Amino acid sequence: MNFNQADRGPALIDDGESAVLELAPRRVGRATRFLGPAIGIAAVVLAAAWAYQANLGSGRPAMDMGMRVTSGATPFPVTAASVERGQIAGVVTYTGSVAPFNEEDIYPRVTGRIVEMTVYPGDAVRAGQIVARLDDVELSSRVREAEAMLATSQAGQAQMEADLSASRHGVTQMERELAMVEAEVTYARALIARTERLFNAGAVSRQEYESDRAMAATAEAKREAARAKIEQARAMEVSAGRKVEASESMVIQSQAGARTAQVVRDYVNILAPSAGYVVKRLVAPGVLVQPGMAILKITQIDRVRLQANVGEKDLASIRVGSPVKVATTTAGGPPIAARVTAVFPFVDQGGRTAVVEAVVDNAGRRLLPGQFVSMEFTTGERGSALHVPRGAVSRLGGKATVWVIKDGRAEPLPVTTGLDSPERVEITGGLVGGERVVSRGHEGLYAGARVSDTAKVTSAREAAGDPHKGMSGMRGTTDDVPGQKKDDTIAQAPTGTSGDLKISLSTVPPSPRVGETRLRIEVKDAAGAPVKDAKVEVTAGMAGMPGPNAAARPGKEAGTYEASVNLGMAGAWVVEVSVTPPRGGTTSSKFKLEAK
To answer: What is the mean pLDDT of residues 365-371?
Structure first.
């Protein structure tokens, strides 16, 4: 069968950007019935050849199904930024908690029933103030018993002292008698000596001589008896003295017992050991308590300890004296500037973290024990360093990559990073300065992809005037866009209103980071009253990648709910909050968060 030029077959047209398979029209006739199957087969073969040429034969990799797809020559919309040189301070942010400077449990020191407790949680107490009283009937009886024993021992001491005085008087009397006997002995000796001379001379008779000798012997015997008596009196004096010493010891012991009984009696008045605030009553009046049973908890909060569990990779760059900026999760008041006062020399084996502490003054009681805080630690400073926006650095498998724009096309470039700040990242290797990099919108880019800087388009639109400005239903600024913040230091999305509920969202830490982020959701009704006992579900995902649902749990304040989500990568995240109040009906609001 013959065909002319008008009956040409399929033609592959390549315009340099895309290939289009075009089928030329055929003459209507009997030949068409035979050419139909052949033309279909030829079309399939040519399409397969074109796909092979486009994906493999051209040297370009096959399209990643997860990347953004642009049509034809349309470039990828990105936000570009310059690599700058200047001062940068590295910081890391951790969620910490407030601990009291000192915390004490108050214990009774004796067993007894509480008859009075004069303080309540929130009361300020001073050191030595009576905070509770115990029943004192038994202890008062013991005091009286000890006092009676003291009186008895004192009476015994008085009797022993009287006996000692009497024994001393007896010794004195015996000494006088001994002196008299000594005089008699001296006279008798002189007399017998005279009589003996006269007897030898024959002047006196033997009878007279023997009589004087007997009288002298009697005097000697009296002297020995007097000496024995005086020794006995002295022994009695020594014994009386020892009894007096024993009675003095008994008196001292009784006095100590009386003082101890009085001290124990005073233990019924339970005192505050130091100044502080009562935070908890652990028992109620009327309860029988024992030593070691806590009845009150007192804390010192005029100064507080701010503690965070810091990962071991950041511990080397945090030292005592390092600056730390503290922000509370509740609005109000500027961040607190402090310095690290202690780095605990112990790393927990489970979390691989160590406690870093900063002690700050809290005279205004702005910080309360147990409260969550965001602690931003300064890990270092450099005066002249290359740095790029934080969103320009992509991290995967421990490697950092920056997309550099050259001649309108993006090329990935491995870099080495240094200090990290909330907005900037130091580049220590891989860049020389002055390059243009993709700071936002690099998700889905491939090597050599054409890009368009949306910042220039926005600037041109603002210079020419936004055509949508002032039109009903259009947003001319980002002030009203959910998730866009007027103050970059507070990561709180504006309130979303849907139906008759008002839903607001804030994050901990205030600037969302890649990883675990805690969400705080506040729900109010049309009148502004908090909505309690609602079922709140949260979904966090990126454009085209919705995440799993997570149930929020009620917070400490009425109408507040808390949930944790995992922001797996840097970029714009959409958080959808669905609230079902007890009366029924579900309200949903969406918020935008920028994870860095």
So the answer is: 87
* H or E segment to which residue 32 belongs: helix 30-52
Distance of CA 25 to the CA centre of its chain: 79
Q: How far apart are the first and last CA of the chain?
A: 69
Q: Say if residue 347's pLDDT is above 70.
A: yes
**DSSP-assigned letter for residue 57:** I
Looking at residue 454, its amino acid is T
Tokens 């949260």, residue located: 538
**Residues 552/537, Cβ–Cβ less than 8 Å:** yes
Burial class (CB in 10 A: 0-12, 13-18, 19+), 515: exposed
Contact 594, 512 (CB under 8 A): yes
In one-letter notation, the amino acid at residue 564 is: S
On whether the CB atoms of residues 507 and 520 are closer than 8 A, the answer is yes
DSSP line for 297-356: EEEEEEEEEEEEEEEHHHHTT--TT-EEEEEESSS-SPPEEEE--EE-S---TTT-EEEE
Phi then psi dihedrals of residue 99, to 5 deg: -120, 145
Whether the Cβ atoms of residue 401 and residue 93 lie closer than 8 Å to each other: no
Dump pLDDT digits (tens) for 436-455: 999 888 777 888 999 988 76
Please state, in angstroms and rounded to a whole number, the distance separating the CA atoms of residues 91 and 425. 10
* Assigned token pair, 550: 């997570």
For residue 485, the model assigns a pLDDT of 38
List, in order of start, the domains of the chain with CATH numbers. 5-57 (no CATH), 138-266 (1.10.287.620), 299-454 (2.40.30.170), 492-595 (2.60.40.1930)
Q: Which residues are 92's β-sheet partners?
A: 377
Nearest-angstrom CA–CA distance, 415 and 392: 11
Instruction: Provide the pLDDT for residue 499.
Output: 52
Average the pLDDT over 356-376 and give the result. 90
**pLDDT attached to residue 63:** 39
SS3 for 208-263 is HHHHHHHHHHHHHHHHHHHHHHHHHHHHHHHHHHHHHHHHHHHHHHHHHHHHHHHH
Which phi and psi (to 5°) does residue 313 adopt? -70, -20
Q: Cα(451)–Cα(274) distance, rounded to whole angstroms?
A: 67
Tell me how long the chain is.
596
pLDDT of residue 199: 84
CB 317 within 8 A of CB 90: yes
| Residue 460 identity | A
Q: What percent of the chain has pLDDT above 90?
A: 24
pLDDT digits over 291-332, tens only?
A: 989 999 999 999 999 999 999 888 888 999 999 999 887 656
**What would the pLDDT profile of 163-201 be if each residue is shown by its tens digit?**
888 888 888 888 888 888 888 888 888 888 888 888 888
Instruction: For 32-63, write each residue's pLDDT tens digit.
Output: 444 445 555 655 555 555 544 444 444 344 43
Taking the C-alpha atoms of residue 127 and residue 130, their distance in angstroms, rounded to an integer, is 9
Count how many Cα atoms sit within 13 Å of the Cα of residue 127 in the half-sphere of its side chain: 4
Decide: helix, strand or coil at residue 200: helix
